[in-house]
């Protein structure tokens, strides 16, 4: 199997689906000649032509409206938003149209489309090139939100969401676009949606995470294991609709729960997972559910490293869950 | 009765006129040389079809208001006064073309094959609504009629229609898409995005603006400082047409012109139809607060139905007996449809959970069960 | 004290602040002659003139941009969004500008402004005249979100938010604009932000709620009391930054928690409050934390009454929390 | 050196020209009749001030790139090639006027009293940044310089600037606000909202568009099908001016004209300045992928600094010695400022929590404590 980075795996998935299905169109700002500001779509316009892979005006609202209309007509648009922080000018299309089309039309119309976008911190991008707004999309009934953390999942999940009949926000952890490498299945490769991945089995505490934080969590786990703590790590993969079953099963085993995310804490995915467990499995819990998150402030530039959860913060979180501090 | 006409090449319709393009005046008299029907290549049967379609639209609209008064519909949003703008433009489309409606389009979609039961099912929120009673009255759409299902956000449809036009271009179809909105819709970013993208990609999109002088209570000059709305097309490198929206022939002629252009790959266009909303904004409005009865009355005299009827009468095609007969026939059809729609009953609550995603995920199935439980308990305990 | 509805109390607060402070401007769609589609601003333009109370073009993005610029210059804009469902075309102004201005400018600039808008279901408004998106605003660090449930609070909280130095989203439960009446202090009346109200003391279970759901909850409480259950009811009032102290104290007493809101459950305020307690007070809890919410679907029209939480659903929720079902 | 000039009434600057308005050509020779300085009422000292300001801007920009190469700045976004457009327009403002910058405005704000330490503090993210290192380089703002602090969303500043203009009007101030953006910014809804509201309320707003031919890699024709960007003003009932953005005198003249109009209550205007970005979009860009070296070189020959210098030389106001002396002087000031900025150190993490709201709520104080704890532990354990 070829070894790929997350960025390469995403490109591989796009190339595969463009080749397989002429309903797939890839577009956004600078995705053509420039190949995207992270080079993810590099070479695709040359390979598939300007009708399949093309640049748009600088207007996310137009990009998303275009995607919606294309999807209504049976195509499979894959729209790139240059940074997820810039999606808001087009948010009405998402909140009012995309998330609700199937429902409001009584099933007459659906809008199977993918919005891909780099998200998250760690590249010194400051307030507007670092945010993690998955919670906002997740609260809009009707959308799916998917976040890969490994190259293999990046390819498999992206392929799955392009083929999925529902609209999906696919968020790509930009910090590790080219930092993590692994073997990725060549050719067709799909990973089922709404199925979490147990990345590490353990018995002492369940840690739910995703995206770049998965890797930071694994670093913390290393240290924790040294101290004799045996965590189970769940990579959530699909944020909404999430895999409640896997989480509940794991907590049933460990009795402890920590959720590690980059986003601010209030009203976050960490809060949601916590609430799920507090509602359905309070009886198996024997410690506080700890949310390890970014701070409830905008994302700072110079002090980025103070903002993002790191090994230290995660270790503290796990120890709190174990009532060790 | 569908037309097989095409705009005759002799017809030169110009964009960016200072005055609205007209074919017949307020009294139904031809403006300019020759009989407009002849100029447009419309036969008598076409003219009668157009008139009947406008009357139907009006009558459906009347019934909408009645249903609110009877307490059967929770809300109604009128089309009264804007029939020519809707019908004239829809008439320029082929059945294969696509329509992005706005909330005042509902009754007119009957022209495209939406049945009266479907329309009243939508207004009443019952099972004959193709969208299963999910939305407020006014939000009618039907895949069969090639009409999309609008949401309530003003102007949102424009930008989605642009995407539809992109699909048509990509698929090399000869269809076009027309997107409706009021003059208020030109203020939203969606309008801007739609026309800008349509210009860049040269899409078969027609944005049709019904300038009815008010956005609820906000008068047209507070909407924009531009002289006309049609002129906004310049910002996108497109032609913008300014037409008398109460003149069904002019509306048809202008729309047919741009539809033909778009179909031939000539790209998008903007149309501003100058018209007037004769009724309050909706059943929840009180228009006395922001406009005078005199103003409304003055426009009532320019009612597009009266105007076109006068034209037909002047051609000897219409009279009071025909009018009576037509109104009665339509009335019966409508009453019958309302009855069917009413009796069709409320949609099944379970479907709510099944049509959020293509396949219902576990949490929605669970919520569905909870609701069923709740319904049972309410029945027992009385809620 | 005069008896007022919520709608009247809001108008009274606006009138009071317009009279007191010439930095206060009221604007939006149809707020002038029409007095707003719910008649809230009726008479204000006549009283204060077209420079202070005025209609805008039909563009929420423009309305919110106008508010931001006015606030930057030291004015106190009170912008009306006709229905909160229509705020999304201007969401970028909120997410990227308003919520972050103070932070990103290092405190050089602030944007004290109020965005008022009717929200919530119960008026047969369907998908786009019924939504409760408070969670979305609450997740954006830097905003305050306030929701009154009574006339007296409506006046006092609105007055407070107009005077507050931070940007506030003030959501008005439209179903009860003119349904609930009570005595409201005449003249100046403020209610402190971020302080919840204990509307009913009780010892068996804590019920946290706000907006229209407060009233539905009180109906359920009536029935519960009949059955010998003694709930404590907390009206949250400020959704973010919320009054954690009052909630934790109450749960410390009751050991049980139910949150009742109208919005969909996933990633909702109910989830957040639940997570707070599961993080900070798990040891005092002796039952599941139950979220009573709208369904995770768009808001339906014809089946509205099946969507919104009602007495029955709340009673079931409380009984679940008490492990009675 | 501030000017006390006003546009002479003889100067007739027209909106909606087909070709950009110019005062000097690519070789620095006057276009049209008379010496442009005389026509504009600019004295020699004013001309020299303008030149120095452009050179300063260029040199600050050069240092920005150097800091990236040295690994001291994480990112830089250039202004190179667009100095005339920035300086010429800023020069038309009074100190009391307001500026809504865009990310390429940073170096030029030195003209309005932002110190070099402040600017380099922003680029380096240190304590001399008036915004305390909260944002990426390029996001400079300073209340002292009456420049707002921009966010990164392209075009967002336009709509905020509109609100600022509304405040100025409400307060009956004689100030104006100018909002900068690239041609890409005209595609966003914010541009549409800003100009539409500004037209309706007749606000003292100038939207100044730097058309530098590319939005990152996307060429101007893909941005809009409109012939010029200036023509977009028609959509809002406003005048739109098309000016040669590499001609500092023409930029000044056009901006002064609309500033005077706006100040006199004449309402808003749109300006399109035609220019070219000589460097890659930012330190993260690779412009070879989307444009040819020949194209860039052709524009390098139209460098606004060279052009204006030739004009000054032709008037006997400038020579190589003066140039050397000026560059050295500026270079020293800049090096000095960089040192100060660098040594100022990182902002205090605690302040992050204190400037989200006017008063920090309990949850942020708690998070602040957690961070302090974490910092301590990291120091002990090494993270
Ligand atoms: C984005 C948005 N804002 C506000 C509303 C509320 N609203 C519904 S119709 C309307 C007026 C629309 O006016 P116009 O576009 O002129 O169309 P008309 O109703 O006059 O046909 C308003 C403000 C809405 N539906 N969507
Ligand atoms: C809303 C938004 N979308 C995308 C971006 C990413 N981005 C930053 S600058 C830029 C190009 C801007 O081009 P233009 O407006 O022409 O200005 P220029 O950089 O050429 O001066 C893009 C796409 C952004 N900052 N904001
Ligand atoms: Mg209107
Ligand atoms: Mg540009």
Q: Can you offer a commentary on this structure?
A:
The complex is a heterotetramer, with 2 copies of chain A (325 residues) and 2 copies of chain B (383 residues). Chain A has 325 residues and is α/β, with parallel strands linked by helices. Helix content of chain A is 35%, strand content 20%. Chain A contains 12 helices and 14 strands. In chain A, the strands form 3 sheets. Chain A has a 7-stranded mixed beta sheet with strand order 3-2-4-5-7-6-12, with helices on both faces. The model of chain A has no long low-confidence stretch (mean pLDDT 98). Chain B is α/β, with parallel strands linked by helices. Chain B folds into 2 domains: 36-347, Thiamin diphosphate (ThDP)-binding fold, Pyr/PP domains (Rossmann fold, 3-Layer(aba) Sandwich); 348-383. Chain B has 13 helices and 7 strands. The termini of chain B are far apart. The model of chain B has no long low-confidence stretch (mean pLDDT 96). Chains A and C meet through helix 4, helix 6, helix 10 and strand 14 of A and helix 4, helix 6 and helix 10 of C. The structure holds thiamine diphosphate (2 copies) and magnesium ion (MG) (2 copies). One thiamine diphosphate sits between chains B (104, 152-154, 181-185, 210, 212, 214-216, 277, 281) and C (29, 58, 60, 82, 86, 89). One thiamine diphosphate (TPP) sits between chains D (104, 152-154, 181-185, 210, 212, 214-216, 277, 281) and A (29, 58, 60, 82, 86, 89).
What's the gist of this structure?
The complex is a heterotetramer, with 2 copies of chain A (325 residues) and 2 copies of chain B (383 residues). Chain A is of the alpha/beta class and 325 residues long.
